[in-house]
Amino acid sequence: SSAMQRVHLGILATSLLVSACGGDGHGLGAADPVSDSFPITAGNGVEVARKSYEAAIASGGFAEVGTLPVASAGSGDGAQIAIMAAGPEDIMLDVISMVPFGPIVEGCLGGTGTVSYYGDIANVETITVGDTFSVEYESCDDGAGNVTDGLIEMTVTDFSGDLFLQTYMLATDVVVTNLQVITLDDTVIGNGDATVTIDTTQTPYVSTSVSGSRMSTSSSLHGSQVLLDYGSTHTLDGNQVPAEFTMSAYGTLDSSDLPADVDYSTPTTFRGLVPAFPHEGVLLAEGDNSTARLTVLDAEKVRVEIDEDADGVVDYSEDMTWEAFLGVGDT
Length: 331
Description:
By secondary structure, the chain is an alpha+beta fold. It has four helices and 14 strands. It has helices at residues 2-15, 45-58, 78-98, 322-327; strands spanning 104-107, 114-120, 132-141, 147-162, 167-182, 187-202, 205-219, 223-237, 244-255, 261-273, 280-286, 291-296, 301-307, 316-321. A 14-stranded antiparallel sheet has the order 1-2-3-4-5-6-7-8-9-10-11-12-13-14. Strand 13 (301-307) and strand 14 (316-321) form a beta hairpin. Helix 1 crosses helix 3. The longest helix has 21 residues, at 78-98. It is globular and about 60 Å long. It starts with a helix and ends with a helix.
């Protein structure tokens, strides 16, 4: 069905963000990065800031029914952030509308494999706290060379409003178990948990928040990434044209592209107009007694400041375009 196809494409799209990542070629079997900090210096500070910014955006992708929040050299602009805010509501609606009784088992577009939808709900007329929904892929071929396996489970923890009028607040606990996407040239695997809150009660203003204790992803081409104690909030305000977006985030990133882990936060919320890059915002990445600070100058330029000994004095500073910042370290 068209709903099943949209759910699958939503999962696939965010999962495959890692394919654009300029990784260092660590194999799929590589161990998780060591959970120790490392010094941020003029030599690695821009890369640290970029990886942290990508992780902040990508963590919101988990709201799209358990898609893998993998950092990438994606656009990083307003269009990408807007998708993180507004995209999950349509996919969540599709999943829930398909499983009033369940299980529903459908063949996949490529002719092999299945996707199954399960629902255990208290009242078919509405959503109730404690309702559970699951999506399970078994060698599901989408017909374009991508095969998906794995299980996504959702439990409703809070709900108010009208889901089918799309004015509601919905909170779910989501668990992803061995979600694997095999493409023509890569294999991406993810496991983890999140609490996802979607608020459309003030539509066309939409807010999507995601938080969790751990989400790990690995790619046969681009190594591994672990988000720990992470969270993000993405909003999209459609009351104006062009629409305004915001993003705030925090967490710990362990990436095979970095020597060890780094903590990131957004002291100033990122803000901008779709589809441009943010014109406001500050991201702080903290390493071993050192920091990298990304400050948005406008929708075209950013500044990266490195404090190598956390004494409050900037030791290195560089202004660059958004495109140059997001392209650093790519191969």
